[in-house]
Amino acid sequence: MDATTHPAGSTASPAATFALGGELLVRRLGFGTGGLVGPGYWGPRHDDPAHAVALLRRAVARGVTLIDTADNYGPDVAEELVARALHPYPEGLVIATKGGVVRTGPDVWHIAGRPEQLRAMCEASLRRLRTDTIDLYQLHRLDPDVPMADQLGTLLELQQEGKIRHIGLDSVDAGQLRQAQDLAPIASVQNRYNLLDRASEDVLELCARGTAFLPWFPLGHGALTGDAGAALAEVAARHGATGGQIALAWLLHRSPVLLPTPGTGSPAHLDENLAAAGIALTDEDMAQLAGPA
Predict the structure, then answer these.
(1) Which of 23, 73, 264, 266 is most deeply buried (CB count within 10 A of its CB)?
(2) Contact by Cβ (8 Å): 17, 26
(3) How far from 90 is each of 5, 10, 84, 161, 267, CA to CA, in Å?
(4) How far apart are CA 250 and CA 279, in angstroms?
(5) C-alpha dihedral sign at 93, 94, 99, 104
(6) Phi-psi region of 221 (alpha: psi -120 to 50; beta: other; left: phi over 0)
(7) Given CA atoms 48, 217, 16, 275 in this order, what sign does their dihedral have?
(8) Pairing of strands 108-111, 101-105
(9) Measured between alpha carbons, how far is 35 from 78 in angstroms, rounded to an integer?
């Protein structure tokens, strides 16, 4: 794994921003809304929605400009919270959502990628988010029973109608990404990727020319916020940081196209995550983290 390109032994902070789709400038460390819903992505996390509303507003007040959500988080709950907290959306705030998956219970879902389903899901998201255009609409899963051209063709139609600004994909392999790029302009990919799971290195390499890569579970579904290994602990100690902060800083240093959007239901954890953007890892740190975390 390559380390950062600054001189050996030096420290440097990575680029803070990224032009999503070549035009929407966002801060690379965003906020994901999966932590605002209950276990198994079912129902709200908090009985009082004011907690989630305050957290979303705090994220934006702290400089977050990329909010990542999905129609099946709740379902519907997360998108409705985003609108309740942030609409009318401030200039420069980018809202990304996802469709193509139907959730029927905690951790129970199925793929639904027929053109009429995708259109209905997108239009429902538009209503819940109270917007005429979704900045980034990501296909949550490719439907193996529907030709990719039909699925992306529907998103292209919605883009042409002004309902979607940019198209993204979730959980694809390198071959699928290449095929998709021949069918439509793909602004983003959202695959699992973190210090503990680097299986999507080939996808990241394909994104390197300007496709945003939004790594889901950037903290390893919580595994990287605790004792995840000696290397991570040693680097964290050198910087006076937590393991989770180093895991996020590693993503920001690993590639300029990585846009982690960690989620949380805690204001303190939100602040901790956002502080990771200010950590400058050295070549020594990156080399140490290149092995097992």
Answers:
(1) 73
(2) yes
(3) 35, 37, 13, 23, 21
(4) 9
(5) negative
(6) left
(7) positive
(8) antiparallel
(9) 9
Q: Which residues are catalytic?
A: 73
Q: How far apart are CA 164 and CA 169, in angstroms?
A: 13
Give residue 178's identity as a one-letter amino acid code.
Answer: R
Q: How far apart are CA 259 and CA 214, in angstroms?
A: 5
Q: What is the DSSP letter of 225?
A: G
Measure the CA angle with vertex 119, ends 192 and 175; round to 5°: 35
102 SS3 class = strand
User: What is the model's pLDDT at position 237?
Assistant: 95
For residues 187 and 66, give the distance between their C-alpha atoms in angstroms, rounded to a whole number. Answer: 14
Strand segments, DSSP code E, in 113-238 are 134-139, 164-170, 186-190, 212-213
CB of 183 closer than 8 Å to CB of 152: yes
Provide the CA 119 distance to its chain's centre, in angstroms. Answer: 22
Q: Per-residue pLDDT for 292 more than 80?
A: no
Enter the tokens of residue 97.
Answer: 């959502």
Alpha carbon distance 286, 65 (integer Å) = 27
Q: Is the peptide bond before 88 cis (omega within 30 degrees of 0)?
A: yes
Reading the block at residue 168, the tokens are 């993204």
Which residues 6+ apart lie within 8 Å of 210 measured at CB? 19, 22, 257
* pLDDT score of 30 more than 60: yes
Percent of the chain with pLDDT over 70: 94
pLDDT at 243 over 60: yes
Q: What is the DSSP string of 194-220?
A: BTTB-TTHHHHHHHTTT-EE--BSTTG
d(Cα 76, Cα 43) in Å, to the nearest integer? 9
